[in-house]
Amino acid sequence: MTWLDSSVMGRRGVAQGREGQHHHLTEAMQDEYHYVYGPYADPVMTIAPGDVVAVETLDAFGGAVKTEDDLPSKVLNMPFVNPQNGPIAVEDARKGDVLAVHIRSLLPRGPQPAGTTALIPDFGGLVASGLTHLNAPIAERVKKMDVTPDGIRFSDRITLPYEPFVGTMGVSPEIEAISSLVPDFYGGNMDLPDVAPGAVIYFPVQRDEGFFYIGDCHGRQGDGELCGVAVEIPATVTVQIDLIKDWAIPGVRLETEEFIMAVGSARPMEDAARMAYRDLVRWMVEDHGFEETEAYFLATQAGRMRVGNMVDPKYTLGASMLKRYLR
What we know:
The chain is mainly β. The chain is built from five helices and 22 strands. Helix content is 13%, strand content 35%.
């Protein structure tokens, strides 16, 4: 992580290049997957800051959609979807600290075809809710795709790049238990493609030991996750989890070699955008030497906005600034 030498991680006292023990969280070890982010489950393992964990995740459907004939409305038991590994307890993590999660790799696992997407009635960016629509819902359909690191076979004539990321990741809220379908200040189901190998994601710790959750990996996804289902894959995702003491941040932040990003999750979508840009401006002031109005001006002229999802109970947007303007 040498590119983080001049970043907030370096200034907050995280040892650069430090690597602790390696752990492997298998399906058998996980045993019971979780469908809420909350403080009440027993940790599946306890690690020290700097440790590396390889996690075997299920897809968002828990493997229930095995073929194109397995319609989600028939084989899923709502709301038990989006299964999460964890919680992983991190020694010495306290409220007011930050977990810094470096995504090292994300590889598909299991038999081919590994990727699943679907059209689900009353769900998606181009349908009304089941409580409000007048016309018949869209026809249900499942699409399976071969997924390897060499590409995703969308059809006979289209192969898409493999651009994997973690759809759902974060820390436990302080007292609530919240569905793993919901994103918010603690992370959760952000479906943000920048939560990808090479990135460091910052989560504000809410309770002792952090209680880190992870699941819902994707082979790729377009901006907005339009139909509500990305290329859902079971995966082995390897993360290094570090700890930054005494750093009060209001929500999720993200850093890559090229940019910093602040994340907002809310409805309506403009509130998510405002939350993300507000925190980006404050981050530029607090850690990159900007005066507030100059940061506001620069965000206006050079800020970028990524739509993670426009389908979940709360929408997720990420506001970013290229690092070359921060130096």
